[in-house]
Design brief:
By secondary structure, this protein is mostly helical. The chain folds into two domains: 147 residues, no CATH class; 194 residues, no CATH class. It contains 13 helices and four strands. Strands 1-2 form a two-stranded antiparallel ribbon. Strands 3-4 form a two-stranded antiparallel ribbon. Helix 7 runs parallel beside helix 9. The radius of gyration is 27 Å and the shape is elongated. The chain starts with a helix and ends in an 11-residue tail after the last strand. The relative contact order is 0.11.
Length: 361
Amino acid sequence: MLSSVICLMIGVMIIGMSVFDLLWTAFVEGAGPLSLRTMILVGRMQRHLRSHVHSRKIIPWAGLSVILANLAMWTALMWTGWTFIFSSFPGAVISAATHQPVDLWQRIYFVGSTLFTLGIGDLLPHGHLFEILTDLCSASGFFVFGAALAYLVPVISAATQKRSVAVYIWSLGHNPSDIIYRAWNGCDSAELANHFDALIPQLFTLGELHLTYPVLHFFHSPKRAASAGANIAMLDEALSIIEFGLDQTCGVQAARIHSVREAINQYVVTLAPVLKYVRSGGPPPIPSLDVLRKGGLPAKPQRDYETAIGNQMERRQLLLRMARMEGWSWEHIHPTELCIAAEPRRRIIPTGSELEPAASV
C-alpha cells in the first residue's frame, strides 16, 4: 500500500512540475526552470553542430527546434507522470477483452493513447477513481497542445518584429562607420537623431518580447541584413564612435545617445541567461577612426578614443557574444579594412572579399 501511495505521489509531482513550467513559460514573464534549461541545452547543441557543419542553412531551424524540444519535454513529463499514477495500483488498467490487469508497457500505451487520441477502447480504467483520472489525463493532453499553440502564435509574430528591427538598423549602414558617414551632410550627422527616436521604442519593445518569450533568443536569420544580434551590436559600436571618437558627437544630442544605449542595455539583459554560454573569444578590437577622418569627419586622436572606449570592453564583449550566438564574427560587425565608396552612394565598404560566417560560436 505504501509503495502505491509513493508511486501516486511521484506521478502527481511530475505532472505538477510540467503544468507549472508550461504555465510559467506560456503565460508568465520569462521561461520556466525546466524550459530554460531545455532551451540552453538545445542552443548549445545547435552551436556545436553549426561549428562543425559550417553552414548557415541550419540557423532558421534553431527557434523551431527549441519549441519542439520544449513541447517534447512537457509531453514526456505528462506521459511519465500519468504512467506513475496508473501504475500505482495493480488493477488500475484492465484489458477490455479479458478484464485482467495489464503489465507496465500496456499501461504506458494506455496513457499515451489517452493523452493523444482519447483511447481506442482496447484497455479500460478500472474503478470510478481511475475513470475520472482517465478524463483528467485526456484533458491534460488537450491542455499541453492548446497552451503550446497559444504560445507559438505570438512567438512567430515577435520573430517577425525582431527581423524588422534588424533590417531597419541595416538600412542605416552596413557597419558602424558606414552608419555615421551615410548621415554626414558635410557639417554633422544630426540626421541620425530622427532614426534613433524611431529605434528607441522598437528596441524597448523587442527587449520586452524577449523577456516574455525567451524562446525568441533562438530565432535567428541566416541573412546578415536581418540579424538582430549583429545589427544591434553594430548600432552600439556606431554610438561609441559618435560619443567617444568624434568631436561634439557630430550634432547628435547626448541624451538621445544615452536613450539608445539604455534600450540596448535592456535588450542585452534579457539575453544574459543564454549569453553566458557563448564564448566571446576575447575582447573585440578597437576600430580605427582613420576611414572617417579621411571622409572629412572631425575624429579625435586615436589614442584618446582608445582610452575612452577602454571602459566599454565588458559591454562590447557581451555584444560580441550576442552576435556570435547568431553565427557572426566581429569582422561582420566592424570589418578591419574599410574604404570610402565613391559618391553619390556615400558608403564605407570592406576592402577585402565577401565575409564568410563565423566558423565557431
